[in-house]
Amino acid sequence: MKLSRRLFISSAAVALTAPAYLRTGLAQSAPIVIGSMTPLTGGGGPYGPEKSDAHRAVVAEVNANGGVMGREVRLISEDSETNPEAAVRAARKLIDADKVSAILGTWASSVTLGIMPLCQEANVLQLFSGSSDYLPDGDSKGLIFNLQPLNKAWAVALADLAVQRGFKEVAFAGPKNDFAASMGESFAASLQALGGSIVGEPFYYNPGQASYRAEAEQLIRMNPPAIFMAGYVTDFIPVYRELIRGGFTGQIITLSFAVGPDFKDAVGSAADGILHGSPIPPIGKDSYDAYLKLVGIEPNGQVQNSYGCMAYDEINLCLLGMEMAKSTVSSDVAAAIRQIANGPGDRVTTFAEGKALIDAGKPMNYDGASSSADFQENGMLKSRDFALYEIKDGKDEIILTTTSDATK
Amino acid sequence: MDAYLVAILTTAAIYVILALALNMQFGLTGLMNFGVVGFYGLGAYSSGIMTETLGQPIVMGMLAAMIVGGTAGALVSLLSIRLSGDFLAIVTLGFAETMRLAFNNEDWLTRGPRGFLIMTRPVLEGLGRDATAWFILGVFLLVAAVVFVVFNRLAGSPFGRVLRSIREDDLVPATLGKNVLAYRLKAFVLGSSVMALAGSLYAHYVQTVTPDNFTTQVAVLVWMSLIVGGAGNMKGAVLGALVVTAIYEGTRFLAPLMEFLTPTQVSALRFIIIGTLLIVVVRFRPEGLLPERIVARPAARDPAPG
Amino acid sequence: MSVARIEVDGLSKVLGGVTVVNNVSFQVDPGQIMGLIGPNGAGKTTMFNLISGVLRPDAGKLRVNGRDVTGLPPYRLARHGIVRSFQLSRELDRLSVLDNVLLAAPSHPGETLGGALFRPFAVRRAETELTRTAREMLALVSLTPHESKPAGALSGGQKKLLELARALMAGADTILLDEIAAGVAPHLVEEIIAIVQKLNRDLGKTFLIIEHNVGFIRALTSRVVVMAAGELLAEGSFDHVSRNPAVIESYLGQAA
Q1: Could you tell me which chains touch chain A, where touching means 3 or more CB pairs under 8 A?
Q2: Which residues from chain A sit within 8 angstroms of residue B264, using beta carbons?
């Protein structure tokens, strides 16, 4: 054990004496430590880096302009590995060794839920993006804020679309995971509220299989006029292929992230006719463009970095909350975030703008890059924009945009 | 930092227990168990169901875990007991995968991917946050110590000698009157029930269990602990688990030393380090840091440990 | 007439489509030292495997001390008082030489799970006594200086001696020795002959010996059976069968 103890102590000593923060010339008082836990490896690996980059870009800019409460902000990045077991260990390090006041950036709902008991116990704030309907259940202290709409909201929007296009009988299929499970329940409920119904029972298949022929055959046998499929692109492509091969001619409705460029390349013209929808960042909005430019991306009128813009809002809200509360105590900060996000007050879109208002003693309403960032009591969004598309000639043609009201 | 070290030691204790159990199966008896997480997860869920769904105290949960884990181990080894060792490896792999799917799909029992929330903890009520952490660490270390003492004694006893002979050659012990199948079964069940016990402790520690918590990565870390530490030697298993945990957690602290790398790269680097360690050990010291002791000490006192 | 230690009654075995043992019958009486000889490939080791339960016969019966033990697994046969050595010596490489011998001790209280955990005193006592006995066995075969080494480190001849020590330690009434003299230095072969005679004379142990070494067979055995191509060719004293033309012919296909 001598070896590992030496490793801990020497690493910790070096970390503490790292001169980085001295260079920014900020006050020598203790820095504000915030944890950034994103999926850098594992299933969410494609989406973690853009979140991590957003956090770091904002922190760099804030520190260059005087920090928060005149103190430097120190961001500590950890990899959630898209796995709750690994994430819990990383969270322990952030909470107990680094003593963070908040953990931002978790992406997989299982990870967010997995670290929630620790964060709750240690009174650590969590800001994240996640869609599982079970997320609010883990919080009893009002310390969570979610920048993504819950499955309920998606389901409402998509059920609406289905009914509008004349499909009242829709089958539901999805992988057996957290996301699809709650999506299935919500979709069934929404459809029913609109006078329709699910065909048979929601059908869950095991993700990560080599072949989905059996599953596709089962769906075809049910003979529904339409199927709503809540899969990720890795299982959606093979299942869809088997459905087409099996001769399914009904309507497919799905979520946009399942039918991106990879999907269209894989199935070619067989993609035409698919209806899909997803929450979208407000394209063309000034705050969204500002975020893109901050991380060095040129806005092109399409959906870009859909997770990064949420991370941008996570860190802005967290830092503004601390600045307004003049404290890092999580309950104070949470209360401040609610005021900042919901208003009423003057519109702000960046930390600098918000700080100016705080210094002037005026109220504000933060309008985010990913959404208007208005929260309900339980920390979930009040509403979010959704866009609904049809694939025509291999391109997504927007049919309508709707604002899904999660409070209904 | 103290609280973090306590947390790491607590996790290390769990891996120590898992490594000791695998050592009983593989290190001593040569049984290839690639289904470690299956028994681990089975123990976690059994214990959770016992305490949360059935409202029993935590000791009942731990007991339930051991019984379920032991029974599963008996069934798995009986399935393959007449076949060669490679078949056990495949059967245990299949078992772990089946368990994972069962955990995921039987959500009436396990809450599936939603996660099973476990409120019962191995601790007395009313202690503060720090004291709770220390208490839990104490409980885990106690369990690890008991498992170590029992397994070490078995390893050094004539029973352990028979196991090791079975590992070397399954014909010779048979012709000397040893019921090889019975010994294999006993070794496997001892191992699987203790793995389930580790799962029980884990579940009551992290308090949310999802099927995702029981991945191949856990099994890989346990196997690594055994290989690095020294298969066949109980002390080696303990050392191996501590070393692997130390490297896995210690490499997190490299990040501030490498500001020039992005977090993604640091994360990748950590895995490279861990993988390199394994390669180096297998190449230069395949018997592990604490190899198995071959020499029997004269039986003036206890039979030799190791 | 006392009951035969081993009675082989019409045993047959087919391996890979080839009839390796074909309807062989003979018996070994108590106190006898019997030889089993024949050219290579005659099925001698297969016969040993059948008698020790390593293989199950396809036809015929096996009786030990009058009891029908056909088809029993090796560990059960061992408890009927049969122990064997192996032609290609099978050492437990990573166990010490001493441990290899100790393993052979029958009914060691420490070998059960319950005993190992709950009866430390009984186990310790047994281990001490058995270690003393094991050391005597090792001394008999002149392996004492190697007691603490891993068995895998022994030379080929030494491994044979270890096989013998282990067989003796098992305390069985009937000992099957499969080419125990092969690869052993001549002066040790003499010692082995002396040991076998001593055990036979003083303790009444019965031996069935597979061997190519003519001197060994002639010195030790009172009776031999000859096998060739899976069949029993002849039976009788060594001098008698060595004059049997069929026996001579079966060997002519081999170097002497």
Answers
A1: B
A2: 40, 48-49, 52, 79
Interacting residues of C134 by C-beta distance below 8 A, sequence separation 6+: C98, C101, C102, C105, C165, C169
Q: Which residues in chain B (71-130) have CB-CB distances under 8 A to chain A?
A: 101, 104-105, 107, 112-115, 117, 129
- Compute the distance between CA of residue A288 and CA of residue A300 in angstroms, rounded to an integer: 12
Put simply, the answer to whether C90 touches B154 (Cβ < 8 Å) is no
Q: SS3 for B271? A: helix
Residue A12 contacts B where some CB pair is shorter than 8 Å: yes
- Distances from the Cα of C170 to the Cα of B26, B162, C78, angstroms: 27, 14, 9
Domain residue limits, chain A:
5-149+284-381, 151-279+384-405
pTM of the model: 0.83
How many residues are present in chain A? Answer: 408
Judged by CB atoms closer than 8 Å, whether chains meet at B254 and A11 is answered as yes
- A14, A89, A121 member nearest B257 (Cβ): A14
Q: What is the per-residue pLDDT for A406?
A: 66
A122 neighbourhood in chain B, CB within 8 Å: 129
Q: Across the interface, do B4 and A48 touch by the CB < 8 Å criterion?
A: no
Chain B within 8 Å of A76 (Cβ-Cβ)? yes
- Beta carbons of B150 and C150 less than 8 Å apart: no
Give chain A positions within 8 Å (CB) of B217: 83, 85-86
With a CB cutoff of 8 Å and minimum separation 6, the contacts of B190 are B21, B24, B25, B151, B154
Q: What fold is seen in the domain A5-149+284-381?
A: Rossmann fold (3.40.50)
Between chains, do A88 and B253 touch, taking CB under 8 Å as contact? no
* Selection from A109, A82, A262 nearest residue A183 by Cα: A109
Q: Is C94 on the interface with B (CB under 8 A)?
A: yes
| Per-residue pLDDT tens digits for C176-198 | 999 988 888 888 888 889 889 98
- Chunked mean pLDDT (size 10), chain B, 306 residues: 84 95 94 94 94 89 96 92 79 92 86 78 78 90 96 94 91 91 94 97 88 85 91 92 88 78 82 85 85 60 42
Q: Provide block-wise average pLDDT over 10 residues at a time, chain A (408 residues).
A: 48 45 51 94 84 95 92 93 88 91 93 91 94 87 92 83 87 85 86 88 83 88 90 83 88 84 81 86 85 89 83 95 94 94 91 92 92 90 84 82 70
256-315 in chain A: CB under 8 A from chain B:
none
Q: How many CB atoms lie within 10 A of CB A54?
A: 29
| Superfamily of domain A151-279+384-405 in the CATH hierarchy | Response regulator (3.40.50.2300)
A touches C, CB cut-off 8 Å, minimum 3 pairs:
no
Based on the number of CB atoms within 10 Å of its own CB, is B188 exposed (0-12), middle (13-18) or buried (19 or more)? buried
3-state secondary structure of A182: helix
Q: Which residues of C touch B154 (CB under 8 A)?
A: 113, 116-117
Report ipTM for this prediction: 0.87
d(CA A121, CA B205): 13
**Closest CA relative to residue B11, chosen from B245, B251, B274, B248:** B245
Task: Answer whether B158 sits within 8 Å of C102, measured CB to CB.
Answer: yes
Interchain contact C/B (3 or more Cβ pairs less than 8 Å): yes
